[in-house]
Amino acid sequence: MIVLIGLMGSGKTTVGRKLAGFMKTKFVDSDELVEAKTGRKVREIFSDLGEGEFRRLESEVLRDVCGEGNDIVLAVAGGAILSQENRELLTSTAKNIVWLDAPTPTLVERTGVDQHRPLLDGDPSGTLTKMRADRERLYAEIASQKIATESLDADQVVTEILRVCRIDHDAKSARK
Ligand code: S3P
To answer: Total structural domains in the chain?
Structure first.
């Protein structure tokens, strides 16, 4: 299993989908799993049920997917690592946990293109700055590798992930 972590806008979903396509393996995104499970969008879950319920659902889908086997690329939504239980689950399940990062202004720019992140309503720059301060040590705690994506396009990030995880380009050795 390859797990991608990082703040909103770091490219986990875009890169994860490409990486899984390249490796001919399954791709899952924790937000998409929560949406599929509830039949509601993340924004609706936050507004109708609250962040606490979202976090509970998030932990639930992570437990499910981590029990599914190793042949998976998993993009983990930015806030899931706040839970110690989730961090322990991920580190005990995945050999490769790759932290994708970019400077905060870049994250602000990338997340500005759509409206599906309720926590970024209002002051995205201030919020992402605070999230970085609060979360950076948690990403660092569980990451096996970190990639600075600022000057790379998605394909180059995929190549970099394969390199840092020492995965053969035929992807066979990633199946563990
Ligand atoms: C969040 C990240 C989002 C989504 C929700 C909250 C966070 O996922 O789960 O808006 O707290 O960082 P992405 O990191 O996939 O954007």
So the answer is: 1
| Any atom of ligand 1 within 6 Å of the Cβ of 11 | no
Query: Among 8, 76, 115, 129, which is best to mutate for testing ligand 1, by the most ligand atoms less than 8 A from CB?
Result: 8
Q: In percent, how much of the chain has pLDDT > 90?
A: 89
Judge whether 5 and 76 are in contact, CB under 8 Å. yes
Q: Answer yes or no: is the C-beta of 120 below 6 A from any ligand 1 atom.
A: no
Structural domain boundaries enclosing 27:
2-174
The CATH number assigned to the domain holding 92 equals: 3.40.50.300
Q: pLDDT digit string (tens) for 70-102? A: 899 999 999 999 999 999 999 999 989 999 999
How distant, in Å, are the alpha carbons of 52, 62, 81 from that of 55?
Answer: 5, 11, 10
